[in-house]
Write a structure and sequence with these properties.
428 residues, alpha+beta, 3 domains, 3-stranded antiparallel beta sheet, 33% helix, 19% strand, globular
């Protein structure tokens, strides 16, 4: 540890081994910044944690080095186990909610009209894709509470441990007794058909059979998770997409389908030279700067391109992030993208080989996509949308990726920008 310095939150983890095992010391701050044996605190060796372990050293310096290495190996293992426990616990939490999420969406958003025209399953899937992004983000959040709102994982943890919190307890108005075994879980960034935060009632029994740990604030874990798990997931997905391109001639064209929510579903993004602020604020790195007015944005990839690794990382990385758009009550709803892969030179309406998104890779057999009503009425917009039509997968072959990676927490917009920068410049 730093001699003469006091530990703070920035270096405490790096020097924990010294406090616990090393021949370390620190000085208490006194008037005049005096440093002497009178205000020195020594942290002697602690043999208790090393019972059963033999150390051989000729001097104190060697012994200190051995103690440091032993502690750091154990601490690294602890961190890996803790991160793994955090991820698996969040996966279990999401799995416990999955069925109720799906059927709640059906009862809230599916109309008799949808039943008559046969668009029920594609529409449910599109809304569920968006809902799941919001749910996963809320479960993997670093903070127990953000902006005065207890996030989804915090609400579920409170239900599991029987801790009441405002706005989610079921209280009998006659008896005043609170039912701690049942709560309405609020999804603060996903709105119902009345533009209010979506709520679903859960029982404690819904989570009883799951291996879930209580973490509360977990910023240290999530920061380590971002790099370790993201890089592993990205690498596996890039390999699958690379093989798919190789099996279909070594070249491919990709189109982005942006999930615009319950009203219009998935849409291709188009650009215009004119600007007008609208509820859809598309991040600039989703757009190809060379696109002409109201042209659907394509991304071409050739496996012989010297920049192929950068381009694949960018395209596949898009599927792992979320974008946002403004809904009612000034709430920014998180939404997902589908990356649709076609043969070289294909138009937006040509058949596709496959698609990949946050959840996996597969054939495009049906997709919910209707006319963009917001664009009519002479509204001038910087971003427009064109329905995804005629793009069903009828050609080529594709490779899947491991199911284990389906539950990776969606990447925040700012994190994506930091990792990939101005990705579209690669395609000029």
């Amino acid at each position: 540890m730093p001699k003469g310095g006091l530990l703070d939150s920035r270096n405490i983890y790096a020097h924990t081994w010294g406090l616990m095992f090393g021949n370390a010391y620190s000085y208490l701050k006194v008037k005049g910044d005096t440093i002497s044996e009178n205000n020195k605190i020594s942290f002697g060796y602690s043999p208790v944690s090393h019972i059963g372990i033999t150390f051989n050293a000729k001097d104190l310096v060697t012994l200190t080095q051995i103690l440091q290495e032993t502690f750091m190996m154990g601490y690294d293992n602890y961190k890996r186990n803790d991160i793994s426990k955090y991820v698996s616990s969040n996966q279990e939490m999401y799995k416990a909610m999955e069925n109720k999420l799906y059927y709640s969406i059906r009862s809230e958003f599916i109309s008799e009209y949808d039943n008559r025209i046969g668009s029920v399953l594609p529409k449910i899937q599109a809304i569920y894709d968006q809902f799941s992004i919001n749910a996963k983000f809320g479960i993997f959040r670093t903070d127990y509470k953000s902006g005065g709102v207890i996030d989804i994982r915090g609400q579920i943890e409170n239900l599991i441990i029987g801790h009441p919190h405002s706005g989610s307890s079921s209280t009998n108005p006659l008896t005043g007794i609170t039912n701690i075994y049942q709560r309405s879980i609020t999804f603060p960034y996903f709105l119902d058909s009345s533009n209010n935060p979506f709520e679903i009632s859960f029982n404690k029994d819904d989570f009883n059979s799951r291996d879930i740990y209580i973490f509360r604030k977990a910023d240290r874990l999530i920061n380590q998770l971002k790099d370790s798990q993201f890089n592993s997931v990205l690498s596996n997905r890039v390999d699958a997409v690379r093989k798919t391109i190789l099996d279909n001639g070594g070249k491919a064209r990709f189109y982005l389908a942006y999930n615009t929510g319950p009203n219009t579903g998935y849409q291709h993004i188009t650009t215009s030279s004119l600007y007008d602020y609208n509820q859809y604020s598309i991040p600039s790195y989703l757009l190809n700067p060379t696109s002409e007015e109201y042209q659907v944005v394509p991304y071409d990839i050739d496996l012989n391109d010297p920049k192929i690794n950068e381009k694949l990382n960018f395209i596949v990385g898009l599927s792992m992030m979320f974008a946002r758009y403004k809904t009612g009550n000034n709430i920014f709803t998180k939404t997902n993208l589908k990356i649709i892969m076609k043969l070289e030179g294909a138009t937006a309406s040509d058949p596709s080989i496959c698609y990949f998104d946050h959840n996996g890779i597969g054939r495009l057999t049906s997709i919910y996509s209707t006319s963009d009503n917001v664009a009519v009425g002479g509204v001038t917009r910087r971003y427009g949308f064109i329905p995804v039509s005629g793009s069903l997968s009828t050609i080529g072959t594709f490779h899947t990726w491991a199911e284990d990676y389906n539950f990776f927490s969606p990447l925040q917009t700012s994190d994506f920008a930091n990792k990939f920068g101005t990705g579209p410049l690669l395609f000029i």
